Amino acid sequence: MPLTLTRPDLIRSANFIAGQWSATPAARLAVTDPATGATITEVPDSGALEARAALDAAHAAFPAWRKVPAKQRAAIIKRWNDLVLAHQDDLGKLISREQGKPLAEGKGEVAYAASYIEWFGEEATRMNGEIIPAPLPGRRMFALREPVGVVAAITPWNFPAAMIARKIAPALAAGCTVVCKPAEDTPLTSLALVLLAQEAGVPAGVLNIVTASREKTPEVVDVWLDDARVRKITFTGSTPVGKHLARRSADTLKKLSLELGGNAPFIVFDDADVDAAVDGLMAAKFRNGGQTCVCPNRVFVQRGVFDTFAQKLAARVAALKVGPASDPASQIGPMINDRAVEKIERHVQDAVAKGAKVLAGGKRLPELGATYYAPTVLSGADARMACACEETFGPVAPLTMFDSEDEALQAANDTPFGLAAYFYSQDVRRIWRVADALESGIVGINEGAISAEAAPFGGVKESGYGREGSTHGLDDYLHTKYICQGQLD
Ligand code: SIN
């Protein structure tokens, strides 16, 4: 089916460097529909040359952009937000087509992305510093907040609009300039957002974007890692890549925000409202077909409610409609690529071989296409299984029965990751005990939808560091300058 947009020019096939759309290099990267493998369009398969040109532009633009009054920067960001919302339908279609999420979710993601742009636009005018009472006579002491400089943003494919928005909006609000490399699977949404940023009045050189294939990405990113002019890296993606970026940034001591892998536990206690817990799991687990860093990867259910919960959940999951993103009835679309489906299949087969039972799904859906996998519920999952140790990143909910709170907490924290954790209970003492004990950056209590622009999103342990969203998400693009003036008496 052709991709018909009200504004067909939102589909860009070029890099954006120093305020110009540039089709170089000649090497091209095909952007495909994950449902069919059909090419949507081609974008540049960039290398070191383009990465350096983007960085030169961002570096040259920084001195002027940081001096633009905060109110003016805020107005530009606000216009960007308005344009994103005005093109919600087109952008939603673009997201669905290149990423595979159902159209309603694609449009929802545009609103989610815009919420970050709006929030950071408003926050641009509130980057107040401090006046510090001086401990010695004749002095005045201040702490000012300054932009860190050029930021390199490396973004993932699972939320092609929202992740760009929550990295670039705070950078622009802070007065930083940006070089960006969007995910190789989903560059089109990012390019469309950059076009709208240009139309909103972001000056030339302030925001630059280069596209590259998986193979060429290290060439692009290495230029930014090695160059001391890049003062911050913000990355969402896998823990191994995050560790690599941290090691490679050490020589120039760049500031880092790393939003890495998760292995979220979802605990249902005997005293939970079981129906609310099923609703929460459906929302958290099956959003974007389970392709989110915060989605529950391990579900622990206490013995007293296990059977009821499992049966209700399996019925809801079996009723999910799987189909192409373009079908308005679809609730789960294709997975992003063949590798993703292979991993899901491997996890389910491994769990079944080790004794898990399939309560729903558990298979590919070849009648729909090679990248479809049925939403799945497993029972009898345990810590030996791959699905308990690795992030499945797909629509699989493995259930494990437990008896005591201590046992659930021990199992929940038994992972090197610590991004999100969820639990359902109606006992107020337990609620605070468990929330305190969970080793994760985000905790959802009786709530499956925890993300919001005003909240700090990020992990502990090997899920990374730094926060996105909220004032903490702006702080990550600023440093503190202490100024001491003497001889005042
Ligand atoms: C992610 O999966 O990386 C982001 C999810 C969210 O923002 O809720």
Automatic annotation (TrEMBL):
Protein family according to the UniProt entry: Belongs to the aldehyde dehydrogenase family.
UniProt EC number: 1.2.1.-
Enzyme class: oxidoreductase
Sorted UniProt keywords: Oxidoreductase
Residue positions of the active site: E259
Species this protein is from: Diaphorobacter limosus
GO molecular function, a single term: oxidoreductase activity
Name under which the protein is recorded: NAD-dependent succinate-semialdehyde dehydrogenase
Domain annotation Aldehyde dehydrogenase: ranges: 26-483
Keyword Oxidoreductase applies: yes
PANTHER family associated with the record: SUCCINATE-SEMIALDEHYDE DEHYDROGENASE, MITOCHONDRIAL
Highest taxon of source: Bacteria
Record flagged with keyword Oxidoreductase: yes
